[in-house]
Amino acid sequence: MPEVQHAKDPLRASGAPLVESALKDILGAKIGSPTAKRAIRSFSRKWKDYSRAALMVMACKAVGGSPEMVAPAAKALVLSGAAFDLHDDIVDKSYVRTEKNRKTTMGLFGMEVTLLIGDAFLIEGLSQLHELREILPADKVRLVIKTIKEGLYELGSAEVEELKLVRNFNVKPKQYLRIVRMKAADVESYTRVGAIIGGATEGEINALGEFGRLLGMLVILRDDINDTFNDKYELISRITKESLPLPIVYSLNDQRVLKKLTSLIEDSSDQNIRELLDLVDENKGFERTKALMEGWVSESKALLSGIKDPKELLALFNY
């Protein structure tokens, strides 16, 4: 199967300065525990998710706004996003990363420290929001905070619902895709908040919000394809400790797939993995996932047709 490319370059260019500023803020916070400070430094060196901040900047610019005004909200979502990623490692029992066996923060410092520094990132992130009052009118501040709150609540709800899918070999595509849409709520909040801060009309806000939702869903399915076909370590983790990726979900009506999944829980040999992927190919798991994604790409592009300057957002599909 072909590897899925990542849209890193434009996201890094727009998001890196805000991510670095946000991490600098938490690294400078008065945290009394030397262990906690070491854990925060360790995580900050490795964690480089530029997408949150970049999408807010791009959405703001797309409606003619000044990207500098995005900083407080972007930093809030960068830091709260880091908190969610730390907490996700606890839920997924992720102690190492893929074939390189690089230890996660939980692998290095344990579950309790990971939980608590995740809380610290969340606290620091939410504290950034007060700066919005200095650059936006009160009604916009309320709308931004409401949007962020609703996005994070829906994302949290999705994580809870996804727990029902762990080692669940009876899940239906419709059920899984409902959770995929919920998990993309935070990406919708990034583009929606960027549009609000940029002075967008209600129509532009809604269009960019749905664009963000679809983009988030595309990223999730991109990762599903990558986890299934390009990373056997992530595939075994998905089978044994997490939700199954969509190409496999599409194949669950085949009893041979169910037997092979059960076998892989006990024996994750390369031979067993190859046999599973052959069955997924036979059931057109990749083709069906790819076709769904192509439809979402078309919908996403159509949503940008009424936006003033969507070129940076459209460029994301070229990488």
UniProtKB/TrEMBL annotation:
Molecular function terms from GO: metal ion binding; prenyltransferase activity
SUPFAM superfamilies xref list: Terpenoid synthases
InterPro entries: Isoprenoid_synthase_dom_sf, Polyprenyl_synt
Pfam families: polyprenyl_synt
Key words of the record: Isoprene biosynthesis, Magnesium, Metal-binding, Transferase
Cofactor(s) essential for the protein: Mg(2+)
Record GO biological process: isoprenoid biosynthetic process
Keyword set includes Magnesium: yes
The organism's place on the tree of life at top rank: Archaea
Listed name of the protein: Polyprenyl synthetase family protein
